[in-house]
From TrEMBL:
Keywords for this protein: Membrane, Transmembrane, Transmembrane helix
Domain of life of the native organism: Bacteria
Zinc found in the keyword field: no
Parts of the chain that traverse the membrane: 115-136, 142-165, 226-248, 254-281, 301-318, 324-344
Protein name: 4Fe-4S ferredoxin
Length: 368
């Protein structure tokens, strides 16, 4: 197949700017269209001929880095076009998270450095050890070591303030990609795509090429689903406990058959298994098909998720033993670090990707 189109095809002609390089590659893909039936990125590419910077940001966050397009492409190296669209979009994507983050500067640090993530985790441990030793306690179970009021005073702002910062970042993103008023139809379409992780199968349901090169596998999709639904179950467990405490006056500790336990234990298992599975798949994947500069930070974040899930399960298993204060500090410290890093770590990708799916739903509906 030949590409009968006049384009600037020399990668060096665009310098080192990630957006310009991604634009060069997207324009070649738009002329070729061999991958038109792949993930949502390619139908989005074919709707236009000229791509503004905001369009490239949208395409980059719509990409799930399944890598199928790379292995199907006839214009990868050693061809003179030297296409590597998964890497080009990954670099724009991570750059956009840093540029749009509020306040600025923190995202680049925690995206790129696993050491910085480890430092945040250690700081979380230290704060929780201090809290358990210095703040008032009272009650049964975990509250015998750290009182309910103290927990709320620490974790309410640690959760709500990062969410507010994430809201500022998403507002900037929405403005940059030209988003319009969101409807229930947009949210329903985006939610269906995100819930099935449809794009992690390349849009064709046959799996992705993330860790097996030119062979298809659904393992990455399955591990992502375990993490996603495990995290949601853990969040639902905490939410149900909050409602039981404040609405019905039912205070912890709860029996094994109570809703917080029935949601939290399987959620913790799914989160741990899924995160460890993703970490293992990352060791098998080609780093040159992603953004190599953020490899350490992304691996650190996945391991942080695994630690949150595993430490929660171990803490539950140790209920009533002398190990509870130590395990409580480790688990709460990891949760604290995870919450505070929401806008500045790989955790942000879930928010941006859902926003990209909502915007894609808007554009597709307008074009139909």
């Amino acid at each position: 197949m030949s590409l009968d189109v006049t384009l600037q095809t020399d990668p060096e002609s665009f310098g080192a700017d990630a957006t310009d390089e991604a634009r060069r590659q997207v324009e070649i893909c738009n002329a070729c269209r061999y991958c038109e039936g792949y993930c949502s990125v390619f139908p989005a590419i074919t709707r236009q001929k000229v791509f503004a910077s905001g369009d490239i940001t949208q395409l980059a966050n719509l990409c799930h880095n399944c890598r199928g397009c790379y292995y199907a492409c006839q214009y990868t190296e050693p061809h003179e076009f030297a296409l590597n669209l998964p890497r080009a979009l990954a670099e724009v994507r991570t750059e956009s998270w840093d540029r749009l983050a509020w306040p600025g500067g923190l995202s680049e640090t925690f995206q790129k450095s696993g050491v910085a993530l480890a430092g945040a985790l250690v700081a979380g441990f230290a704060l929780m050890f201090f809290a358990i030793s210095a703040l008032p306690s009272g009650g049964e179970g975990f509250y015998a070591h750290l009182g309910h009021t103290a927990m709320v005073a620490i974790f309410a702002p640690a959760f709500l303030l990062p969410l507010a910062a994430m809201g500022v970042s998403l507002t900037r993103y929405w403005r940059e990609v030209g988003g319009t008023r969101v409807t229930w139809a947009d949210l329903r379409e985006a939610g269906a795509s995100a819930g099935r992780l449809r794009n992690l199968s390349g849009g064709q349901g046959q799996g992705c090429n993330f860790e097996e090169g030119d062979r298809y596998t659904d393992r990455r999709r399955q591990m992502h689903q375990l993490v996603l639904y495990g995290f949601l179950l853990c969040f639902a467990s905490t939410s149900s406990g909050t409602i039981m405490h404040y609405v019905f006056g039912m205070e912890a500790p709860y029996a094994w058959y109570a809703l917080p336990k029935l949601l939290g234990v399987p959620g913790g298992v799914m989160l741990t298994v899924g995160a460890l599975g993703l970490a293992w798949l990352r060791t098998k994947a080609d780093p040159e098909l992603g953004a190599p500069d953020v490899k350490g930070g992304q691996m650190g974040f996945v391991l942080l998720l695994a630690f949150v899930g595993l430490s929660g399960l171990v803490l539950y298993a140790a209920t009533g033993t002398a190990a509870v204060p130590l395990l409580l500090a480790l688990h709460l410290g990891s949760v604290l670090a995870l919450f505070l890093l929401i806008p500045y770590s790989k955790m942000a990708h879930g928010f941006y990707r859902f926003a990209a799916l909502v915007r894609e739903a808007q554009i597709a509906r307008a074009a139909s």
